[in-house]
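Quick one, T. Sequence first:
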Amino acid sequence: MSLTDKQIKAKLDKINTKIGTLLIERENVKANICSHNKVEMTACSNSGNYDPHADSYWYEFHCQVCEKFWTEDQTQYLDRQRKEKFAWEKAREIVKKSRP
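Structure tokens:
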């Protein structure tokens, strides 16, 4: 089967369009459908620099289900965790007070 350059280009364009659609669908599953309940978290750092202000600390996350990978600064992550814990504790106090 011999194809012209134009036919080959059209065939490849069609394949690339399908690949693009599937990649968008995959990212949608990662971002909006997976709850990331099975996540591997690794603490990482770049410390020991001459200037201690250049040291950095972060967490790397890898979802075992959808294979999403992301990083978060350790300080920001821990601050968010503290705020969420505080919010849950406040909610529990409200529920306790509202019960007879």
